[in-house]
Amino acid sequence: MQKKLKIGIFTRPIDQGTSGSGFHLLELLNQLFDLDAETEYVLIHHNKNGNAIYGRCREIIVSRNPLLASFQLRNERFDIVHYNPLTIISPIFGLSGKKVTTIHGASILFLPTQFGLIKRLHAKYIVPFLARRMDGVITVSKTSASFINRTYKVDSNKLCICYNAVSNKYAHLTISSSTDKRSNILHISKFSERKNPWALLAAFKLVFDKLPDARLQIIGSGWGNDKVTAWIDENGLTNAIELLGFVSEENKIECLSKAGVFVFPSLYEGFGMPNLEAMACSCPVVTTRVFAIPEIVGDAAILVDNPNDYREIADKTLSIIQDTQIRQRLIEQGLKRVMAFSWTESAKDLLSFYRRTSK
């Protein structure tokens, strides 16, 4: 008879709300709890949170001080402790059992100028040092796993890939409209230089110059800053660009269904969830050939080789708007591509990884 495991999982990303890492962990845990009634799961975090996931198993509130947190957890006798995220203040020492962590990517190492000195030093020295001392590392793509193996010197046998997936909520909504939606362009991201906002805006300006009926909607917080709004005004695009800010998931799905093209010119992605979400809603995708994006989108998106080449981004966007065959091919391939990713399968992979690592 297989030993009943006891696994402690740090859930800080879930408590942070809208982060991609929090969404990943929450989806995996819900699937994991459905699949596995034998394991004793304990969720560990710093403050009470209203998320329903905490009603599905025992939770422990611990101090943010790692030494005190280790003291509070000393009698739990976990078989595995799963750190989310892995940082210099993670309570690693003094706890029993095997230790694993999830590392989503390495954007700080790829785009160091966009982060402060402390974060750069932490990413370059502390994370690799701690990762090598883990009994296992989980990540979200083969590209990230290969990077962790090569750069952090983590043995490939200790790596587990748990892909993201798209919720069943994401599907094309039939929305009656008398207007042609093909020239409606959509982008989704929290404003960040990593998402390449200025190339997005410059590319749209070129599209607008050729198609004056083109419209750009941007979903995500931070876009209403002074620099962006000034650029929009200076380029005469006040009526052509709509900054929607943060919206509900239902509104996001509606916007994806209304859009003719989804443009995502990111400089770095460990996975790139918005691309898959667009595909699930039958919205053709223009994105960039950087890090894990080609692995995830396959042949179901148009890839721009140079993320900073806004002219190419504009040309690829126009090709989807103007060529019905390209558009239809991308829609069909996108719907097939989405089916390659499953939260259930990723949860099964994680469970297998837990059991293998615990031995």
Mean pLDDT across the residues is 94
Helix content: 40-55%
Largest sheet, strands/sense/barrel: 7 strands, parallel
Structural class: alpha/beta
Widest beta sheet: strand line-up? 3-2-1-4-5-6-7
Q: Would you report the number of β strands?
A: 13
> Any idea how many domains?
2
Structural description of this entry:
The protein is of the alpha/beta class and 359 residues long. The protein has 2 domains: 177 residues, Rossmann fold; 155 residues, Rossmann fold (3-Layer(aba) Sandwich), CATH 3.40.50.2000. The protein is 41% helix and 16% strand. It is built from 14 helices and 13 strands. The strands form 2 sheets. It has a 7-stranded parallel β-sheet with strand order 3-2-1-4-5-6-7, sandwiched between helices. Helix 7 links the parallel strand 8 and strand 9. The longest helix is centred in the first third of the chain and has 16 residues. The chain is elongated, with a radius of gyration of 22 Å.
Could you write a compact summary of the structure shown?
The chain is 41% helix and 16% strand. The protein is of the alpha/beta class and 359 residues long.
Key traits:
Rossmann fold, 359 residues, 6-stranded parallel sheet, single chain, 7-stranded parallel sheet, alpha/beta, 13 strands, 41% helix, elongated
